[in-house]
Design a protein that fits this description.
By secondary structure, the protein is an all-alpha fold. The protein is built from 1 helix and no strands. It has one helix spanning 5-44. It is rod-shaped and about 80 Å long. The protein starts with a helix and ends in a 16-residue tail after the last helix.
């Protein structure tokens, strides 16, 4: 299995390109997830009762 320097260079370049593509896709997925979470929190904010959980009734 004798590989020339040129073939190794091409192979390494291809691997680097694949890795960069994977990182780009992951960044897009993370950004979409973050935007989705922010949107969900914005939609839920008016529905949250600020007095809920302020008092605890304890009976023994």
């Amino acid at each position: 299995m004798d590989m020339s320097i040129a073939a190794m260079s091409v192979g390494m370049h291809d691997m680097q390109a694949q890795q960069e593509l994977g990182v780009s896709v992951l960044k897009m997925a993370m950004q979409d997830g973050t935007q989705g979470a922010e949107q969900l929190l914005e939609e839920m904010a008016p529905a949250v009762d600020p007095n809920l959980g302020q008092n605890i009734d304890i009976m023994a």
